[in-house]
Amino acid sequence: MFPNSFEYIAPTTLTETIELLQRHGYDAKVLAGGQSLLPMMKLRVAAPPILIDINGIDELKGWREENGFLRIGALVRHSELEHADELRARYPLLAETAVWIADPLVRNLGTVCGSLAHADPASDWGAAMLALHAQVEAIGPGGKRQIPIDDFFVDTFTPALEETEIATAVLIPTPAGRTAGRYLKIERKAGDFAIAGLAIHVSIASDGTVAEAGFGICACGPIPLRGKRAEEYLLGKKLTPETIEAVSRLVPEDADPTDDLRGSAEYKRDVLRVFAKRGLSDIAKELQGEVVLR
Amino acid sequence: MKIRVRVNGQTYESDVEPRKLLVYYLRDDLGLTGTHVGCDTTSCGACTVLLDGKAVKSCTVLAVQANGCDVMTVEGLERDGQLHPLQTAFWEEHGLQCGYCTPGMLMSGYALLQTNPHPSEEEIRRGISGNLCRCTGYMNIVKAIRSAAVKLADASAEPSKEVAASGSSSD
Amino acid sequence: MAVRQTELRPLGKSVGRKEDPRFIRGKGRYLDDISLPGMLYMCLVRSPYAHARIKSIDTSAALQAPGVKLVITGEDLAAMNLAWMPTMANDQQMVLATGKVLFQYQEVAAVIAETREQAEDAAQLVYVEYEPLPVVVDPFKALESDAPILREDREQKSNLIFHWEAGDKEATEELFRNAPVVVKQDVRFPRVHPSPLEPCGCIADYNSATGKLTWYVTSQAPHAHRTVLSLVSGLPEHQIRVISPDVGGGFGNKVPVYPGYVCAIVASLKLGKPVKWIETRTENTTSTGFARDYHMTAEIAAEEDGRVLALRVKTIADHGAFDAAADPSKFPAGLFSIVTGSYDFKEAFVEVDGVYTNKAPGGVAYRCSFRVTEAAYLIERVMDVLARRVGVDPAELRRRNFIRKEQFPYKSPTGWTYDSGDYEKTLALALEKIGYEQLRKEQAEKRARGELMGIGISTFTEVVGAGPSHTFDIMGIKMFDSAQIRVHPTGKVIARLGVRHQGQGHETTFAQIIAEELGLSTDDVIVEEGDTDTAPYGLGTYASRSTPTAGGAAALCARRIREKAKKIAAHLLEVGEDDVVFDGVGFSAKGLASRTVTMKDIAFAAYTNVPEGMEPGLEATYYYDPPNLTFPHGAYIAVVDIDKGTGAVKVRRFLAVDDCGTVINPMIVEGQVHGGLTEGFAIAFMQDIPFDEDGNCLATNWMDYLVPTALDTPKWETDRTVTPSPHHPIGAKGVGESPNVGSPAAFVNAVVDALAPLGVEHIDMPIYPWKVWKILREHGVTE
What we know:
By secondary structure, chain B is of the alpha+beta class. In chain B, about 35% of the residues lie in helices and about 15% in strands. Chain B has a five-stranded mixed beta sheet, with helices on one face. The longest helix of chain B has 19 residues, at about 140-155. The two termini of chain B are about 25 Å apart.
């Protein structure tokens, strides 16, 4: 199977890229990791006349911490976050999530931002970024803007990016206090899209109460969803068997799954409940100093 | 579109259509048919090659994206008529049957050992989880990669040996 | 680990594979690696509808697209009388659709262009106007009187393809009437696909000057394909050369002749150029030979202690739009009547109804001896239902019912004569090795804590090696197989066989048989298969038949060489022929071990110094018509744990004890077992090709047809017992398929065993986590 014919352009600056997007509009597609786009083009589900390869734009590479955020550039591959030991303590959810995405070969090319911009309802990163309360940075002809992750997923495969805009980074607020994260996913086989996925981010204040709580759900709705009720409940409370139990019942309430070949809606909701309980129990143990073997 | 790619140490200059996938560039333009195609959906990994040292599925990379890059295929494993220890291990441990997935498995195994010279069984299974095999049930592939890791460790303890040199040459 | 190829007496040793050096270097030569001068590429246009009338096909835009040389439609083929082709099951199948399409992804037109990309681009420009028709997906509904009749080309007024029976109906009924215990279970074997890593394809290369067609094709049965092709096309058989190069896995998928093959040949005939067609994965999954899709109901009549009396089975077999099952002619339901398995049933009666539906054709023997997998799965599953009902441990129930060692050769109630077996011994070894009693104790403790652990047993018997010519033929061609051995003057041997390996290691195992018989090392023997111009006629590699048939041919052919060698040895040793003894390495004069000649000496003499009156040279051909089939068996045990929260099943342990008779190469046998178990695991837990009510295929490629990765696959434990086949020349039985045939029941039995405290008696495959979860919730089990 082969993609359609297209014109290939590889700009080296963002300015050039924006100009190209302005010139070609809907006809142009941005190629970063290509691990979703190229298979779609091979299957001819997508057939863009113009392909703008951004892999040569240096300013989109790498991650760094600045202004209270971890800034993950648009060309950061999944595998970079999987193996970034420096990030493990403060952003544990990143490596936790990365390892669940497809397989090591795909992770070597696929990008975090590309995955978000693809806006797949089963996006593992979608769930993780919701849990981390991230923002997507986009640049277009009008300049730069930050889009809160809650506003970023408009609909299935539809991100809040203008035709002339490009996602340049995802920004994750640096957590205060001790932090733990879990990504729980059930899949039909290793590397498959999720049947249901739940990303959990918790940081606790010095008094042991929850200072930050994030729950991101994927594959259980038209877009990745926030476990809002659970977050609101947990803030300021301590992680106890009772609060964990309560949260585990709240998480499914924010999910909106459907019956499909991956199981019934009822099943997916219940798995989210089980995941919330397991994930938080693990996190509670970890934050209380116990090493959790996984 | 003109591209310049270094494949297994040799530089090629070619004119390719932008839509040409790297795997077909290697197979049809360069005659390196060891890299195989098994699916349409980036699922099977039969097309695995090293692109600038990283294992990727060459059916999901455009040849033009490899412009200026270093590519290593299964044909690049053997050096001066000497099989790479990974190749020998696949032979000795019966790590292949029909042979179709084998080049991709070898390249994933090679990439894994580059970053993790002493992988556990679990790490090997994770490392080759992007490569499907329909014949072996993976048992002997895992065994072969472990055995190669041991051989490479022994060889690198004696740096003068050939295998030590070829073990890190794709970087 | 493999041993060296230079050893003498190689039979039974783990000799390193001779085929590997090319594969590990990327120097295998698979179909798509072949490129011929001036070669064109073909792409097929396929139907988006499962059932629709074709109102019109407009090829004009495609014909004007860059590089396009030819577009073929069904009407073009009809003009050549090639719109339909015969299937191996005595049905016919459309090559390119005329009138209407009968399944989604059916072949409608072929586009031939200068490059692959051009062919694919132009295929999108073939405009077909369809008028959708009512779709029949459910085979039970297909049999209802008001169902639309799918096949207009057949005169029949229903969608029934065949009704087939085996066993004694009356005698079976009689036993059921008086039986103290009767159990009944509906069991579905889902539609699955062999999915070899290399898809199917071919290059047709017709030379108009010589009139010869060279056809490179991914074929498990090149000779059979040549004959079929000759019959279909009218081309003389000696003007067709079929070359099956290295085959990247087959598992039954590369046995049938597919429409794309015929189209490529027609295109080459028309254009006088080589035409290559390589299927995409999607095309492979959606249109080529699927397997199974059996809806079975089994009943066992038994005594109160679980001793079985009779078996009654009724099956609806969904064959799709065309009956393209690759079964021997006399067996429309394959060898399904082996369904009494390892147990001494007094009577049995088996019925199978084959049905047309709007799905892809097939019913191939997927790593299976023609429907043996369905049979083994059914009996092993229902024996567990019986065990539960009578309250006897499943291992003990099997033991009570085994055909005993002294009963062989055993005549089964459905007419098979089992050659040999020792089921007790194999099961005993398996139970001991896995620590069965200990596991049952652990299970009891876990159950007390509310944990779900299951142990599943399968003690299956297979029937393989089709087969004896009195019973087995495909389209009239008897199913013997062949070997031809040439010993060159320096003692180096080339052997050619009628089968075609796809990973089984024939280049090594057949070399071992021949080397053993001739006193050589495997290094001295090259095995070649897959070229009909050079290899003797044979029916190919599938249904675990290579070792039982061609393996027998190889041994007997070598013995024919040895007979002549013995005469030459007598001449060289200057003794009478009766005074020459062969010790496996050389020939010596009786009582004079020091006077020895080797096969190498004899080979040289065969061309330089033969006794007066003897024909020079040293070669032989042997067509081996086996006297019976072989009956490998095994005892498999699976141990599983179930996650109560998600319903996920973890296979903690799996032990396979196989008995395939004489073992030629233990390393290769073990490798075959690992691979077969993995496919059995996939079938039990992952693989299915479902359709929606409009006939849309819902698992079209490896995104949704799930092939397990190294992370999903359990770790396999293996062992074996050896009960040689009394009739096979070296006592071998074939093993490639046993693990795929025997394992699904062990997995399912283990899961059902884990859920048994809830009263669960059966779950259909594939056992997805949400199915288990649903059962757990229905019984109030939750985390």
